[in-house]
Amino acid sequence: MPIATINPATGETVRTFTPATPEEIDTAIGRAHARFAEYRRTTFAERAKWARATAELLEAEADQTAAMMTLEMGKTLVAARAEVLKCAKGFRYYADNAEQLLADEPADAAAVGAAKAYTRYQPLGVVLAVMPWNFPLWQAVRFAAPALMAGNVGILKHASNVPQTALYLADVIARGGFPDGCFQTLLVPSSAVEPILRDPRVAAATLTGSEPAGRSVAAVAGDEIKPTVLELGGSDPFIVMPSADLDAAVSTAVTARVQNNGQSCIAAKRFIIHTDVYDAFVEKFVEQMAALRVGDPTDPDTDVGPLATEQGRADVEKLVDEAVAAGAVIRCGGKRLDRPGWFYPPTVITNIRRDMPIFCEEVFGPVASVYRAADIDEAIEIANSTTFGLGSNAWTREESEQQRFIDDIEAGQVFINGMVVSYPELPFGGIKRSGYGRELAGHGIREFCNTKTVWIGSPETGDCGSGEKAE
After folding, report:
1. Active-site hit among 72, 87, 182, 265
2. What pLDDT, in 10s, does the model give residues 365-380?
3. Cβ(39)–Cβ(182) below 8 Å
4. What is the SS3 assignment for 269?
5. pLDDT at residue 127 is higher than 70
6. Alpha carbon distance 30, 38 (integer Å)
7. pLDDT in tens, 91-112
8. Which among 394, 390, 389 is positioned nearest to 373, based on CA atoms?
9. For residue 142, which of 22, 172, 183, 375 sits 20 to 30 Å off, Cα-Cα?
């Protein structure tokens, strides 16, 4: 795939970029490694000042940055601007909270025979970030902000179709005051990831992307014994029970399915509806999905823009067409629009069987699969009948049902009577084939830290501890 800006609304190639050479890659890694030796000793106050300045620049430049993101991957201008402002919030959150989140944690010194004992969190070094195109700024920032505030330095290998956004992030971080080499963008193909990760100067990696990409990075990192965080997508359930506020559930379901033109790992994709409210839900849901306006993502009245890539649309079409051929029913949408660009309409499908690929594969576009459940047990069984486990949504007023969903849904996140959203204040990540590790909140900033145990004996007695045998 060429490294290029290609407008998804027209298919026009706007600008192409030359990949970095092996020599340029080596220089960048060397610069990052050298910078870390100094940067790790900067204070939280210094890092916070640079992070807040970066946030201010993001806010000041939100309109032009949003336009660039819309041009590169097709999200609506409204969504793109909101993403830029969310990135500013992310930098501010870690500027305000990093020192507390990474503060020394005291231990029970007496229990371990010490005069003093505690845990200290220290940065690891150069971290490679392999990021996707669907939230091209936020998904990189939710790594960059905590990593930089922890004292790490970063190298970004972004998706090949969002090179301008990738370069902008490194530039705005530099203009915010972070020292040269703290965060660098490398425009390189996927084939360059393995040699970068194997470089002994690179300490760890984080990847958000496809399952095959995650498996590849995890294999290399495992061979090199380097820590990784992986977020590999999801097929999130959206369960509606009879006690739910049906109108609120329907309107939220529409937003949850078509956010970011349907291209979100945490978008609700499988709608599991209790039989008592199934018909009413489907009628309202189809009506609202069909009423969405598909069009130019720069038009403020547009609800759904194009898919980001031509291949992405082809993948969505294949899953839908296979399902229909096998007996599934299209309730709205289901056919590409006859216009330039990579548009696909909001689509609702029912009568899906378990032997259809659409049942188990993630549909990365505005396509909703709807299932009927006889009771809460069947709803949970359908929800868990996937290899993914990222987010989940459940709608019910019954507290006992809420607790069942919290306890029994296999996912990294459960949102009750709401839509899954990533917040700087909450840990983000999944289980099963959705990956491992966490981003955001305290869990995220500690992922790329050395959790160092400190044990200090009494200098007067030369105490060596409890006398237990060493492991």
Report:
1. 265
2. 999 999 999 999 999 9
3. yes
4. strand
5. yes
6. 13
7. 999 999 999 999 999 999 999 9
8. 394
9. 22
Tokens of 185: 């963008």
pLDDT given for residue 47 in this prediction: 98
- Indicate which residue of 72, 231, 362, 439 is catalytic: 231
DSSP line for 310-323? HHHHHHHHHHHHHH
Report the topology of domain 4-232+430-456.
Aldehyde Dehydrogenase; Chain A, domain 1 (3.40.605)
User: What's the one-letter identity of residue 407?
Assistant: D
Quick check: is 449 catalytic? Answer: no
How many whole angstroms separate alpha carbon 295 and alpha carbon 303? 8
Q: CA-to-CA distance for 425 and 92, rounded, in angstroms?
A: 11
Verify whether residue 231 is a known catalytic residue. yes
Q: Which residue type occupies 161?
A: N
CATH topology of domain 236-416: Aldehyde Dehydrogenase; Chain A, domain 2 (3.40.309)
Residue 1 is predicted with a pLDDT of 76
What are the residue boundaries of the structural domains of the chain, listed by start? 4-232+430-456, 236-416
| Residue 400 pLDDT exceeds 60 | yes
Q: What is the dihedral of CA 18, 196, 266, 149, to 10 degrees?
A: -100
Distance CA 369, CA 356 (A): 12
C-alpha radius of gyration, the chain, whole number? 24
- In which residue are the tokens 């696909």 written? 344
Gap between the Cα atoms of 283 and 43, Å rounded: 57
Amino acid at 109: A
**Do 202 and 126 meet the contact criterion of CB atoms below 8 Å apart?**
yes
Q: In angstroms, rounded to a whole number, what is the distance separating the alpha carbons of residues 194 and 199?
A: 9
258: CB partners within 8 A, 6+ apart? 267, 289, 292, 303, 304, 346, 366
* Number of neighbouring beta carbons within 10 Å of residue 392: 29
Helices and strands, counts by H and E, the chain: 15, 18
Phi, psi of 183 (to 5 degrees): -145, 120
Predicted pLDDT at 242: 98
318: amino acid identity, one letter: K
Q: Long-range contact list for 374-378, CB < 8 A, 24+ apart? A: 374/274, 374/275, 375/274, 376/241, 376/274, 376/401, 376/404
- Angle, CA 223 vertex, CA 220 and CA 229 arms, to 5°: 55
Residue from 215, 208, 210, 283 nearest 253 by CA: 283
Could you give the CA distance from residue 413 to residue 435 in angstroms, rounded to a whole number?
Answer: 13
Angle, nearest 10°, between helix axes 62-73 and 163-175?
160
Closest-CA residue to 163 (of 1, 359, 293): 1
Helices assigned H by DSSP within 180-301: 193-198, 211-224, 246-258, 275-290
Residue 19: phi, psi to the nearest 5? -65, 150
